[in-house]
Amino acid sequence: MPIPQLGLSLSITDNAGSSMYTGNGEREKMAEFDSALRQHTITITISDEKINEVELEVQKGILNKVKIPTYKMMVTDDKTEEKTYYEVTRDSLLFNKLKNEEIGGFSFLGLNILKKKMYNIPVLTFEPLTSKIEKFEVSKYRTKKQDYLSYNLLRNKESATLVAGKLPPNFFNTIETNHFFYIVDHNEGQKFMGDISYREKFVQITPKVEINLIKRSDHIKEYQLDKRGRINKIIYL
Q: Which ranges in 25-78 belong to alpha helices (H)?
């Protein structure tokens, strides 16, 4: 629970004519102490606004790359109030359930002409259960390494992981979730990691970190991809 602000800076003064005078500079010292008691918060907001797409290397046999949508994500804190924006993926793909089918074209003399091979892949999503926005306090569920940073979002028996950076090969085998949000900052996650480190140092105490997840209006069930891994069709629930 956040420590309450005590207002101690109001009890003394640097005015030598006052009965509350305690020595030159003492008010500034107490004001610093008062400020240190505040619990600052870094807020990460994952929006429902689709802004781009990102190509991921997956090397899963049939498909080497896939392109999936990215959404706007904002990072701010209640001390600097600076806002920075990133792209983040919101959909996790179940490659072990990938299926292929042929669509379009026509038959002529027993031959299939101009048919296209497509790949259907189920999609896992992690959305707010009831309200438009769901908050997750993730301060205690952070993993910070030299090359990557991750936060775990916990909800009853469900969990999801927000990750940024260059992930080790065995990363996905070490965590018990299939739900991932992957931050794209076009610098292997270093921009986002530096942003978080800067804010932590500036507030001078270990801040509370909250992730606000905004609910999308449509629930995705499946992607239909072409042979280049581009989305041909999105199938909704």
A: 26-36
Task: Specify the pLDDT at position 103.
Answer: 61
List, in order, residues 6 or more apart from 58 with CB less than 8 Å away. 64, 65, 66, 93, 95, 229
pLDDT tens digits, 71-108 = 999 999 999 999 999 999 999 988 888 887 766 555 65
Task: Give the whole-angstrom CA distance, residue 95 versus residue 214.
Answer: 26
Phi and psi (nearest 5°) for 182? -115, 125
Q: Exposure string (b/e) for 1-33, b if CB count within 10 Å is 16 or more?
A: eeeeeeeebeebbeeeeeeeeeeeeebeebeee
Which one has a higher pLDDT value, 71 or 61? 71
Residues 6+ apart with CB under 8 A from 199: 42, 75, 77, 79, 80, 82, 207
Q: State yes or no: pLDDT of 21 exceeds 60.
A: no
Average pLDDT over residues 173-200: 88
- Report the side by side order of strands in the sheet with 142-144: 133-137, 208-214, 41-57, 65-77, 84-88, 180-184, 158-165, 148-155, 142-144
